[in-house]
Specification:
Elements: E1 13-19, H1 23-33, H2 42-46, H3 54-61, H4 67-74, E2 86-95, H5 96-102, E3 109-112, H6 120-129, H7 135-147, H8 157-177, H9 181-185, H10 193-196, H11 201-210, E4 230-238, H12 239-249, H13 256-267, H14 271-277
Antiparallel strand pairs: 1-2, 2-4, 3-4
Helix pairs in contact: 6-7, 6-11, 7-8
Length: 281
């Protein structure tokens, strides 16, 4: 996929992990109006006179259509009842730039891949690069190693080399400024590898990767990564908030990367939910 500025990007992948159904939302609406007997869904009619057992709950959560919810959503704009339906999505390969946009949607649960705990391979590649014969060789080792991580949403290798080169330069600046660089980048139990694999970048990298990881290593190095870096996350929206998200983020005015994400999320959202939040054309 290419943006309007000529840069190639990979698109995110999305899977719907779970959805709670629309039966609870209709139950909430019927509770407001005390109108259980008017439902076309027999299990909801039954709620007028009895509390549901497990089999009724299974039936309730399997409801695919509700005339009342459709009326409330599109005729009366009573959207609060949509808050009783929730959907959770696993998202892989969107960007940190999208994450910033996502955070502006107030009502969502969001859990994101942590740079604090997941930068070990990147830092190991830099530490290993310092064992190369020359700085240029070390930098090239770092660039080639990081290219193999597939860590950017941009899909142009030449562009990504520029990005990784900048990361190396920032790390090298820090390396020359901080007296105890290895103490903040390498686990204590892995420090002997620096002597064991002197002048052997590939060997040191492999050893560091198989050794104990430095705890919270990302704390010292978050500054080197950009909004171009991929992130994975799980997000949970109630249906009302998802309606707002799709309305704003599937718009041509939205940042193109979050628009791609919204479209992928929409593509895996079951039709029974879309019927309540996306206006039929």
């Amino acid at each position: 996929m290419e943006d309007m500025y000529g840069i190639k990007y990979s698109k995110p992948e999305v899977v719907l992990l779970q959805d709670t159904g629309i039966g609870v939302a209709e139950t909430a609406a019927r509770t407001c109006y005390d109108s259980f007997s008017n439902s076309e869904n027999q299990v909801i009619k039954s709620l007028e006179t009895q509390m549901p057992d497990d089999s009724m709950l299974d039936e309730l959560n399997a409801i695919d259509d509700s005339a009342l919810l459709d009326d409330l959503a599109w005729a009366y704009f009573h959207h609060s009842i949509l808050e009783h339906a929730n959907l959770s999505f696993l998202i892989r390969g969107t960007s940190r730039g999208v994450l910033q946009e996502h955070a502006r949607h107030r009502i969502q649960a969001i859990s994101v891949r942590s740079t604090r705990y997941t930068m070990s391979s990147l830092i190991n590649a830099f530490v290993a690069s310092k064992q190369s014969e020359t700085k240029n060789e070390g930098k090239e080792f770092f660039i080639k190693t990081v290219l193999s991580f597939d860590m950017f949403v941009t899909a142009d290798e030449a562009y990504n080399r520029v990005e990784i080169s900048g990361m190396y330069d920032k790390l090298d600046f820090q390396f020359n400024k901080v007296e105890d660089f290895y103490a903040i980048s390498v686990a204590k139990s892995s420090l002997p590898f620096l002597e064991e694999f002197a002048k052997d970048s590939a060997g040191l990298y492999k050893a560091l990767q198989s050794g104990k990881k430095k705890r919270n290593v990302g704390d010292a190095f978050k500054h080197i990564i950009s909004d171009n870096v991929k992130v994975d996350m799980v997000v949970t929206f109630n249906l009302r908030s998802l309606k707002n998200y799709f309305t704003l983020r599937d718009s041509g005015a939205a940042f193109f990367q979050i628009r791609w994400l919204a479209q992928e999320m929409m593509s895996v959202t079951p039709q029974k939910y879309l019927d309540l939040i996306i206006k039929k054309k």
